[in-house]
Amino acid sequence: LAAQALYFATPTAPDGVPDRVVAAIAGADVLLLGEEHHVQEHHDFVAVLLPRLHERGFRSVLCELNHAYGWLLDEYVKGARDTLAENQWNLGRDWIEAIRALNAGLRAGGRAGEQISVGCCDVNHWDDSYRESLAALAERYRSQPLAALVAQLPATAGTAYLPAVAAIADAAAGDPARLGLDAAGASVVTATTRVELAAAGYRTSRSDAAREDVLHQNVTAAIDRLAPGGKLAVVCGMSHAQLRPAWRMHSASAWEWLGTRLAARYAATPGKLYSLACFAARGQHKPNFRSKERFDVDVQSSASSDDLSRALDTAAAGRIAFLDLTDTGVDEEAKIWFGRDSVMRPGELFSGLLMYPRSSVARASVWYEDHAGRSGRPALRLVSPAATRRPPP
Predict the structure, then answer these.
(1) How far apart are CA 308 and CA 250, in angstroms?
(2) What is the pLDDT of residues 192-225, one digit of tens each?
């Protein structure tokens, strides 16, 4: 297997991404980029990979961030909004900036219809993300009625919160003009509220199964919205991208990961789905976005001597290792370390692997360690009034 891998220097520009990598992963309609979170090298690679994916028809990117921020990120990458609050984008700043730059070039070249859209597919982990999102929407539309409804929302932990959230969705669906919204604005309210109703329950129960349901619903909705020939990339944690589960989280009950559910959807046409595991052979990590703790990992000491990733790291000699696992000719199970151990036939857990030689903590994520409390909300929102005067794209 190690002899089949491609080893290449870390690219600093899109043309540095080998054609062989692009050909292997971009032939699918849906690409899962299963990451180790908060890794700077992964953010850098995604930033140079995205233009190559765009060449192959990818026009939509979803990321595992608070769903309520999705429309704000989309406006930002399409130039309709000049700034974002720090908490809204610091978990993906580098590749978000890459999409914004790519889209600006497309607009300048008269190709605005080919811009990449961005959305968020996760639950709202933070208590105030929903009201923050709708307050920004009211500002966008200069809607005093919507602003008043948002201002009147009760405390998130109270029993009156969910009925008040549902009432906002009803108002937008019944007569959006009364809220000063057009169809696009009402659609944002409807989608954002649907997820917040589920997210509020998740924030209480911490049910991994409920969260995965939301992820799956949002991703499949994005797939169903794709134009003919359109393609979708999903930036998510490696666990969510599993095609066949090897690892669980905290819940003991039976439930299926996003990747496993998508694998069932594409069982008859497996080539339309590609799940790429992106991880580092060694380096520094942080346990979560708020933590100042650091821990070190090294495949040479963490994996057994007969592990594939250890062999790849030895052969890579400081380069990135890429291995397409979809057609290796190997039917036996193999030990493959993805930052955690697995034993499966190649291609069962992931379609391919991309192993960076070293990892460091993502620079933008460090902001949360000093500025974010439980909600992750900064002291000051950075959305400029000038940006909100533009019509929604």
Answers:
(1) 28
(2) 999 999 999 999 999 999 999 999 999 999 999 9
Give the Å distances, CA to CA, from 167 to 163, 177, 374.
6, 16, 27
Nearest 10 degrees: Cα torsion 275, 276, 277, 282: 180
Check whether 375 has a pLDDT greater than 70.
Answer: no
Report the C-alpha gap between 339 and 179 in whole angstroms: 49
> Which are the contacts of 22, defined by CB distance < 8 A and separation ≥ 6?
49, 52, 53, 55, 56
Kindly report which listed range (292-301, 338-347, 366-375) carries the lowest average pLDDT score: 366-375
Q: What is the DSSP letter of 12?
A: S
pLDDT at position 92: 93
- Own/partner pairs for 107-115, CB < 8 Å, 24+ apart? 107/79, 114/54, 114/59, 115/59, 115/77, 115/78
DSSP 141-158: HT-HHHHHHHHT---TTS
The pairing of strands 295-298 and 282-285 is antiparallel
Q: What are the start-end ranges of the E strands in 231-368? A: 231-237, 273-280, 282-285, 295-298, 320-324, 334-335, 343-344, 352-356
Joined together, the tokens standing for residue 111 give 């190709």
* Inter-CA distances, 304 with 299, 313, 320, Å: 9, 13, 20
* CB distance 369 to 340 below 8 Å: no
pLDDT score of 370: 87
Query: In a 10 Å sphere around its CB, with 0-12 CB exposed, 13-18 middle and 19+ buried, how is residue 389 labelled?
Result: exposed
Question: Pairing state of beta strands 334-335 and 58-66?
Answer: unpaired
pTM for this one?
0.93
Q: Give the largest Cα separation in the chain, rounded.
A: 67
**What are the φ/ψ torsions at residue 119 (nearest 5 degrees)?**
-145, 170
